[in-house]
Amino acid sequence: LSTAKNSLLAAKAQLAQAKAQEVNARNNLSYTVVKSPSDGVIAMLPYRVGALVGPSIPQALTTVSDNSDMYVYFSLTENELLSLINQLALTRQYGSMDEALKNMPEVELKLIDGSVYGEKGRVESISGVINRQTGTVGVRAVFPNASGILHSGASGSVLVPNSYKGVIVIPQEATVAMQDK
Q1: Cβ burial 106-129 (10 Å sphere, 16+ → b, else e)
Q2: In 3D, which of 98, 101, 99 has the Cα closest to residue 123?
Q3: Three-state SS at 143
Q4: How confident is the model at residue 73 (pLDDT cuts 50, 70, 90)?
Q5: Contact assessment for residue 79 and residue 134, using Cβ atoms and an 8 Å cutoff
Q6: Is the pTM of this model over 0.85?
Q7: Distance set, CA 121 to CA 53, 93, 105, 108, 162 (Å)
């Protein structure tokens, strides 16, 4: 009877060990499928299909970027910033810079090929510190990117609207450029 009980316990131990090996095998199998915790655009994959990767690899397998909204960073000179604030009377009219940013006019983005991006953006933040070396202040605008045209690292120009009051407007067609004059 004791021999039969010991054999039963040994069989149960072998079963438990086999179940643990199955769980370990399922875990290892699950690592063969890479899933991103978020939706977005995937960067280049530095590894080829079939390459052995694991937690000890020196670089990330890839990166995923959420490009639904794109942040555009640009600079304004101190003069341009003061001109913009004075033109719009932003802080006086709205009381604080945060409220002024919410009420700033929308900006446009001119892409590198010369076309204007179809969606308008808004200025989200203006740095409170002026860079002493360049005399500029950092500005961040956000543009919706539902079409996926904008990519991280691309370049372009931000068009900030200006309105002038009490000035004379001369059509560009009425002007000419002459050398030395």
Answers
A1: ebbbeeeeeeebebbbebeebeee
A2: 101
A3: strand
A4: very high
A5: no
A6: no
A7: 41, 22, 9, 6, 15
